Amino acid sequence: MIGHLRGRLAARHPPQLVVDVGGVGYELEAPMSTFYGLPAVGAEVSLHTHLVVREDAHVLFGFGTQRERALFRELIKVSGVGPRIALAILSGVNVDEFQRCVETEDVASLVRVPGIGRKTAERLVIEMRDRLKATGGTTSGALPGTSPDSAATPQAEAFSALVALGYKPAEVTRLLQKVDPSATSTEDLIRHALRAAAG
User: Fold this and answer.
1) 134 vs 160, which has greater pLDDT?
2) Is the CA virtual torsion 189, 190, 196, 199 positive or negative?
3) Interatomic CA distance for residues 179 and 176, integer angstroms
4) Residue 157 CA to its chain's centroid (Å)
5) What tens digit of pLDDT does each residue of 120-152 get?
6) What predicted TM-score, i.e. pTM, was given to this entire model?
7) Tens digits of residue pLDDT in 106-123
8) Residue 181 and which of 2, 23, 73, 90 are 20 to 30 A apart at CA?
9) How far apart are alpha carbons 177 and 197 in whole angstroms?
10) Whether 21 contacts 34, CB under 8 Å
11) What pLDDT digit, counting tens, does each position of 19-31 carry?
12) CA–CA separation, 144 vs 141, rounded Å?
């Protein structure tokens, strides 16, 4: 299993990114919480990883902190929660917010995450109580650097990322229309849209 990558950030198109390690480009998918802290393209980046092996593909997921990866690994053990939904959860709430939802049995907040119905949210609250100990420790800081790389417009990249996270195109359009005009980068647009979805 690939557990860690350190190399040059070659491309970033949320939720996908490419890390060049010694001339080999590793494609990864990452939650938005990790994207918010990525450095500019061309800079060195270090990510904790988790490899998911399926019959039709090997998918590598990247995380900015060990706590994010630990929570991801616990989430995919829950019945009905696959890697895509786990990624959506980590994009919509951080580790501490998720822990608060579980501790306070805040099912309503979890249902706002795309792909999670009430039954799955209730199952998460029940099954994750004991498992959250695996993500213990204080909140880890973000990776240095915040400059985005934009081949397409930030609006278009934000739209694609939100659709990839499970939101319907019509809903993404509505969420992006609510975004504060001061948000100009892809990450800011996604962050504001996710807040609007959770509100």
Assistant:
1) 160
2) negative
3) 5
4) 15
5) 888 898 888 877 754 554 333 333 333 333 346
6) 0.69
7) 888 888 888 888 898 888
8) 90
9) 12
10) no
11) 999 999 999 999 9
12) 9
The single-letter DSSP state of residue 27 is: E
Residue 18 tokens read as 């490419």
CATH numbers and ranges of domains, the chain: 4-63 (2.40.50.140), 66-135 (1.10.150.20), 154-198 (1.10.8.10)
Strand residue runs (E) in the chain? 4-13, 16-21, 24-29, 44-53, 58-63
Burial of 1 from C-beta contacts in 10 A (0-12 / 13-18 / 19+): exposed
Two tokens, residue 55: 């019959």
Residue with tokens 């948000």: 183
> For residue 87, which phi and psi values (nearest 5 degrees)?
-65, -40
**What single-letter DSSP state applies at residue 73?**
H
